[in-house]
Structures are given as structure tokens and as C-alpha cells.
Amino acid sequence: MRCFFFDPDQQTGDRILITGSEARHITTVLRMQPGTTVELFDGKGSIITGEILQLTSREVLFRMLSRSTQHNSAAPLTLVQAMLKGKKMDFLIQKSTELGVHTFIPLITRYCEKRSHGKQQLDRWQRIMFEACKQCRRPVPMRIKEPVSIELLALPENSSLIMGWEDEDSQPLSPALLRSNHPTLLLIGPEGGFHADEVSLARDLGFSTVSLGPRTLRAETAALAATSVVQYLSNNLEPHRSE
Prior knowledge:
The chain is of the alpha/beta class and 243 residues long.
């Protein structure tokens, strides 16, 4: 079943209106017809089964058939990823969305990709994220923040702070590092790794450095491997129960 996001302000009773580019996609690209059933997300956790009542090239009107709610994790994960080259960040945005990352923060480090990333790039990442949400049936979008440096990171209270570091030789990514039912911030470096000063600063902020195994991983591999482990240990890979 196809999935689409809608503005909650465009719902009146059991009627839901989708306009703009999403409506054009439904009518001109997918060529859906009245009577077609789809899933609609309001971006806040609601999962609505809707039936197309009428449509034009500019707007599509749905009738709500059923509604359920998917609750957020009690242990949300924030992935803080140093800027990568080429389209690797696009890839990580997509896969982080699929893996249920709550917030994605691009990180500016000494050895990271130094290109300027303004509103245009953030808009691109948002589009990639929303398409990934629809593909994996994720009703609550991943938050994507503007790039920051380590010293400007906002650290949630009582959160688990973990830093993947290629030179860590004793501490693995283990359950003991995670606080039950509390947020986790996962810090992953760029292709060239973290500078020693950045590691020292992160430790001063309370981050625990961890090894991701005996092999040297590509930055994007390290991010996805560590994300998967944290999500598993936080019970964020269990089946969702909608109400």
C-alpha cells in the first residue's frame, strides 16, 4: 500500500486533503483513481487508512477509513555524523531513517568534508528522508538538524554518550554503556577519523569511546553498524504495536 504524508491542519473530521507536489505525484505520476486505498501519515505518529474520494492535478481528497497510533521510542537515538564526501551523507540519511534514528546531526570536524551545506542541502536531505519514511512505512519523520561542531552539541539530560573511535582498543559497544529508557547520542567520525583534540573534547563532555571491532570500517559502515547495535540494545528493533 502506498504511503503519503499530509498536513494535520488539512484534516476536517474524516476528510483529509493533500495538495501541492504530493497531490501531483498521486495524480500524474502514480495515476491513482477514486476508490484507491492508501496509508496517510500526519507526521506525529498517526497511521490512517484513507480512500481517495476525488482528485485533481492540484489536490486529492481522502476519506478516513481507520486510524491507529505508533508511539515514539522511550530510548531515542541521535546519530551525530561527521560530514562525508560525495553522496555518502545522502545514503546515511536514507538508511538512518530506515533504522529508526530519531535525530540526525551533521558534524563539522577537522578532517571532514569542508563544502558549504546551506538550506539547499538541508532541503535535499529532508526530501530523501521523507521518501525513505514512505518506503519503510515510518509515520514519524527523522529530525535533521543543521551542521554543528562538537563543542556546540546539545546533550540531553541523562543521555548515553558514545563515540566510535578507531584507536579504542579495549572498550566495545556493550549494553553497559546504555542507560535503560534514556536517549543515546552516537558520535561517528569522517573518513579521516577524529583528531586527538576532538577525542579529548568529547571525553571531557562525557562521551565514552568505543571500538567497533578489529577491522577498519568505512565511515558510513561504522555509522550503520553502530546504529544497528544501539537500536537493538535499546529494543528499538522490536515490532511496533499500534493502538
